[in-house]
Amino acid sequence: MRNAKPVIALTSGEPAGIGPELCVRLSQQTSSADLAVIGDRSILAGCPRIEHVPLAHPRVPGKLDPANARYVLAVLDRAIRGCLEGEFAAMVTAPVQKSVINDAGIAFTGHTEYLAEHSGAAQVVMMLVGGGLRVALATTHLPLSEVPRTITTNGVSSALRVIDADLKRRFRIARPRILVAGLNPHSGESGHLGREDIEVIAPAIAAALAGGIDAKGPIPADTLFVPERLRQADCVLAMYHDQGLPVLKYASFGRGVNVTLGLPFIRTSVDHGTALDLAGTGRADAGSLAEALKLAIDLASAS
Q1: How high is the mean pLDDT of the chain?
Q2: 260-279: per-residue pLDDT in tens?
Q3: How far apart are the C-alpha atoms of 20 and 290, rounded to whole Å?
Q4: Which pLDDT value is given to residue 237?
Q5: Class of CATH domain 125-257
Q6: Interatomic CA distance for residues 204 and 197, integer angstroms
């Protein structure tokens, strides 16, 4: 008899961080899904179901070890393969530490980019959900100095298409309403504070509108996140990481969820990092990971 519960892959993340203990805690709670926790069984004792991927080197809580960088990626690879083959209905990821993967000589800018590359996704968009908000990002993990030249009309147009499609497909919103933030203060002040809003972002919004997407902007970021505007929107597209996420994290920190739009499978994650200082203490809060699991189950049920 086929199991009625969806099987969700739960990747345990950076072994020296709080991910493994949060996964153990979550796997022991009653859930409407079967959790397949992926990682080394030596650090996941207590999980009902473990998909074993061996550590390269014994872990010490709170102490990063570049020797385990490829292990972290092997855990992700196992989840990606299972999602693409239909073994898993979705994947939920505990946090990884980008710096230690880079220290091992591996080019890695984040989960979002890695999942896109290894699943063949043409374009993905990082979106955080929490506090009644959905905030997507036109660019993700870049130095601020690189943001203006990275934002292109085609890129913003493509991001709007991905957001619109996945809000319809995954979130079951019939006609998503998207507010688009300007890049510069006052959206460039008619070009006096930068031309990107006029020459790059506005044409992308016009193209989206022509394609049947309900997008408005560019709206100055300092007045975009006001209740009156947000009540009339299903998602905000911010131009860069720290333009949109401080607002969302203020509203929902510890309960926010990261969703990758545009993948051929469902992926959710926490809104926080590896918290090395809390690793092994038992004091880490599993709230964000629990919310990520809840959202993954809900999205899987719509597929």
Answers
A1: 95
A2: 999 999 999 998 999 999 99
A3: 14
A4: 98
A5: alpha beta
A6: 10
Domain range list for the chain: 1-121+263-303, 125-257
Backbone torsions φ then ψ of 39, nearest 5 degrees: 160, -175
Residue 241 identity (one-letter amino acid): H
* 266 token code pair: 């469902």
The reply to whether 125-257 shares the fold of 1-121+263-303 is yes
pLDDT tier, 40 (very low <50, low <70, confident <90, very high otherwise): very high
Contacting residues for 274 by C-beta, under 8 A, at least 6 apart: 13, 14, 16, 17, 18, 19, 95, 96, 97
**Hunting for tokens 């959710």 — which residue is that?**
268
Average of per-residue pLDDT across 219-235: 95
Full-model pTM: 0.92
Residues 268, 258 contacting (CB under 8 angstroms): yes
Q: What is the mean pLDDT of residues 14-31?
A: 93
Long-range contact set of residues 165-172: C-beta below 8 Å, sequence gap at least 24: 165/261, 165/262, 166/125, 166/261, 166/262, 167/134, 167/234, 167/235, 169/302, 169/303, 170/259, 170/261, 170/266, 170/299, 170/302, 170/303, 171/234, 171/299, 171/302, 172/302
Quick one: 1-121+263-303 is in which CATH superfamily? Answer: Isopropylmalate Dehydrogenase (3.40.718.10)
Q: Hey, what amino acid is at 44?
A: L
What confidence score (pLDDT) does residue 152 get?
Answer: 97
